[in-house]
Amino acid sequence: MTIRIKKGQANKLLLNQVKNMSGVDLDACYQCKKCSCGCTVSGHVQSPPSELIRRLQLGAGDELLENDLIWTCVSCETCFARCPMGIDMVSVMDALRTLAIEKKAIIPEGNVPLFNSAFLKTVKIFGRTYDLALMTAYKIGTSSYLRDTDKLPIIMKKKKIALLPSLGANRKTVRRIFKKTRQNKGRLK
To answer: If you average pLDDT over every residue of the chain, what do you get?
Structure first.
């Protein structure tokens, strides 16, 4: 995809916000594209990670917050492991997600923010993810109560998800993490 930015229109506001929130110096990226080559989702999104960074460097504005990679990224850290400059793309994605929510950007198809919220809520309550509660919260949030319910007995029979939450999690540590995050107002430090 060709990136066109007209002379004099470069705006570094979004870049600076991402830098401050993530603590990552995106100017260090020299576009080797190793992050994009290793990205597990780059073939399914509009722009690979290297292009997202380049757009930020060139002064892309809030339109970048509507990019589907922000919500499709699975935070596997393959990009970080491959990056010769040690750019923590997961922190960048977290910052972009936070900004997209704050600025009420149009979120691509699906409801990833609802899923993320439901996931974090189950981790906060149970100390680790609890699939049944996660699925229930997501179904309630999307009002898709009966969609895919025919698969639940099959999943339960194959023991792919537990009926009751696991008691092995260290809930005290998880509560401390959430408290620290709340103190930082969700900002990465």
So the answer is: 82
Q: Are the beta carbons of 36 and 70 closer than 8 angstroms? A: no
**Mean pLDDT on 155-162:** 81
Q: What number of helices (H) and strands (E) belong to the chain? A: 10, 0
Q: Which two tokens stand for residue 166?
A: 């696991």
- Mind listing the pLDDT tens digit for each residue in 70-82? 888 888 888 999 9
One-letter amino acid at 141 equals: G
User: Which CATH code fits 13-102?
Assistant: 1.10.1060.10
Contact 127, 174 (CB under 8 A): yes
State how far the alpha carbon of 82 is from the alpha carbons of 33, 55, 78, 157, 178, in Å: 9, 20, 6, 40, 29
Stretch(es) of the chain classified as CATH 1.10.1060.10: 13-102
The helix/strand/coil state of 34 is helix
End-to-end CA distance of the chain: 33
The vertex-20 CA angle with 18 and 26, nearest 5°, equals 55
Cβ–Cβ < 8 Å for 122, 137: yes
SS3 of the chain: helix, strand, coil, percent, to 5: 55, 0, 45
Angle between helices 112-126 and 89-102 (to 10 degrees): 110
Which of the four pLDDT bands, split at 50, 70 and 90, describes residue 109? low
Residues recorded for the chain? 189
